Amino acid sequence: MGPPTDPCSHEPARAGNSLDARTQRNRLKYSRRMRSILLLTLLLCACTSRSQLAPAGPAARATALSAVIEAAAQVADDEARDTLSRYYLVPPEGVAATPERKALVETVRAWPDERKQAALAWVSQNATWATQLRALAIESFDAKLRPTEWGPTMSNFDRAIFGRRADLSPLLEAAYGDPAIRQLARGLEEVRGPFDAEGVATRREALMRYLRIEDTFPPFAALSDPLLMPGNGVNAYLPDGSLLFVVGPTRRIEDASMILFHEMAHQPLNRMLRHDEVQRALASSRCVFEKLGGKLGYSDWPWLFAESLARSLSYRLQGVQYDTGFYEDELLPHLERWEEQRQGTFEQTMVAMLEAMKQRHCG
Fold first, then answer.
1. Is 132 helix (H, G, I), strand (E, B) or coil?
2. What CA–CA distances, in Å, run from 181 to 117, 139, 160?
3. 46-75 pLDDT, tens digit each
4. pTM for this structure?
5. What is the distance between the alpha carbons of residues 210 and 272, in angstroms, rounded to a whole number?
6. What b/e readout covers 233-249, taking b as 16+ CB neighbours within 10 angstroms?
């Protein structure tokens, strides 16, 4: 995984949620009884009723979650903050904050301590990748910030966290009750750059044309989220069948476009991963993953390969060059050959990639 400031430092979209002993201790530290007391305190001090608020769409839910996480960070001890940092829930040292994040920090600073402690209790027990929690907030809560049964990203990734989403509901509600948080959310809803309907449609068409496949995918939309960690992105699945691509802040608009390409690419690539020939090639080349020391944050070879390919593919589509240690140097030559040839399928190119990686790393 690249550094957080790297425009390609996406977190694993479907990686296993492996936890070290320190994170496990941090989770156990916050018992259900303690969380219940803190949540009760939170509810007693909440002064804005749900009925007074406008419906909370994806931007509002994402902003409310960012406020909850920031509240947790402001009262976290060193051990808890280290956990938040490792999951990119708080910006790493030395990363410049966006104006929106500066405003968020100052807004949350004025919250009562009991509200922050309630946030810390939930976030500590449910610490995982920032992108996964972003998808949870967008997918698993309705416009009134009530938990729903819908939420494929987190329910497939960590059923325990998904099962505790009801405890997050009053935290989101209280955060969204703050007028300054609602103002920040309205800013996220302003569509601009590659994230408007035309920008999304143009990139979607370019992706399908590059892969030479028929476009049978659901509707796409995009959201620029300056409160997400720099360079991160995530797919959020909505109940109407559409897909929302959430992209964090970047230094350049070209990098934002590249991350949007990356998030889009996961859809056709995930479908291609299920192809029989690709499945066999993945099984045969699993030794590449087994020889890899840190696994780059991924729990299984198919997801690491898909992430590596999505990165390389987004570079070619955007016309940029990066090397974040995700096998780009091995995959990009295959993509260049794919661009030159006029026959075969992209699944066959994926098989060729996997066979070449097996020969190089496994002998």
1. helix
2. 19, 20, 28
3. 444 444 577 899 999 999 999 999 999 999
4. 0.86
5. 14
6. bbbbbeeeeebbbbbbb
